[in-house]
Design brief:
It is a single chain. With 280 residues, this protein is mainly α. The strands form two sheets. It has a two-stranded antiparallel sheet with strand order 1-2. Strands 3-4 form a two-stranded antiparallel ribbon. The longest helix is centred in the last third of the chain and has 52 residues. InterPro entries: Mpo1-like (IPR009305). Keywords: Membrane, Transmembrane, Transmembrane helix. One of its GO terms (cellular component) is membrane. Pfam families: Mpo1-like.
């Protein structure tokens, strides 16, 4: 028996796909290690592979960005997001906060419909009675005096226009048209009949809204918690609600989703507090 027969041998696959046996005695160290690594991958090799078979860590680091650079890029993308900038209102001009506050008190469809029908008549008849106030300036628009009715409509119109450019401008136009129409109606009716018409309209419209809250919404009106915010937002809430239902309008992308989440959270908190008060 020859000495080479006692040496270990390793099977490899040749070009003809037949398994051959090569004695490791006649192979250089690098080739023996290479064949051992290919044929027996579970067997550790004492000599590391050359760089051509072992990519360097520097090349891999070039392909994968570090966590610090990734975090910086994410933070820069968040800071440059135009949608997030549009959603950030402040104080009195935060449309999202106003709309969520008013929407939490008007989630029932029947109650919302009642407000759609009667909110703007309340605003209009309020302008009618204010047409009988003294004139503030010796100027006239369409033959109408600039009195407290004009100031009332101007405040509402400017406030709505500051909340949203498109829907707010439409609401401001409606406020101006209501002022013009209320002026002509006040001239035709006169004070003796006008105040009676206004009183009857106000009682009817407010009664309908209280019924909507008590019977359908089953929650007190928003004006009992925040009178100024409720009276300011009511006409614009109705208009924006119609624009969303009919045309799918949003002041900015994601507005409806964000408001809906805040409304649901407010309603849940109100129901939890109501349940706790009953248990006490």
């Amino acid at each position: 028996m020859s000495i080479t027969a006692l040496l270990p041998s390793f099977p490899v696959v040749g070009q003809n796909l037949k398994r051959k046996t090569i004695s490791s005695h006649f192979l250089p160290p690098f080739t023996r290690n290479h064949l051992l690594f290919q044929c027996h991958p579970l067997v550790p090799s004492s000599n590391p592979l050359p760089p051509i078979f072992n990519p360097s860590k520097t090349n891999q680091s070039k392909l994968k960005p570090t966590s610090q650079s990734a975090s910086k890029s994410c933070s820069s993308n968040q800071n440059n997001n135009p949608i997030e900038e549009k959603t950030m209102g402040e104080g009195l001009f935060d449309l999202e906060r106003h709309f969520a506050f008013y929407g939490a008190y008007h989630s029932n469809p029947v109650n919302v419909l009642v407000h759609v029908l009667f909110v703007w008549p309340i605003f209009y008849t309020a302008l009618v009675i204010l047409q009988f106030t003294p004139t503030l300036l010796d100027l006239s628009v369409f033959g109408l005096a600039l009195n407290y009715s004009f100031v009332f409509a101007l405040i509402y119109g400017l406030f709505y226009a500051s909340l949203d450019r498109k829907a707010g401008s439409l609401a401001a136009l409606l406020c101006f048209l209501c002022w013009v129409g209320s002026g002509f109606l006040a001239q035709r009716l006169g004070f003796d009949i006008g105040w009676k018409v206004v009183l009857a309209a106000q009682i009817f419209c407010w009664t309908a809204q209280f019924i909507g809250h008590g019977v359908f919404e089953k929650r007190a009106p928003a004006l009992l918690d925040n009178l100024v915010q409720a009276l300011l937002m009511a006409p614009f809430f109705v208009l924006l609600e119609l624009l969303q239902k009919i045309f799918g309008y949003e002041p900015y992308p994601g507005f409806q989703r964000r408001v809906h989440a805040k409304v649901e959270a407010d309603i849940k908190a109100w129901r939890d507090s109501k349940l706790q008060s009953k248990l006490k």
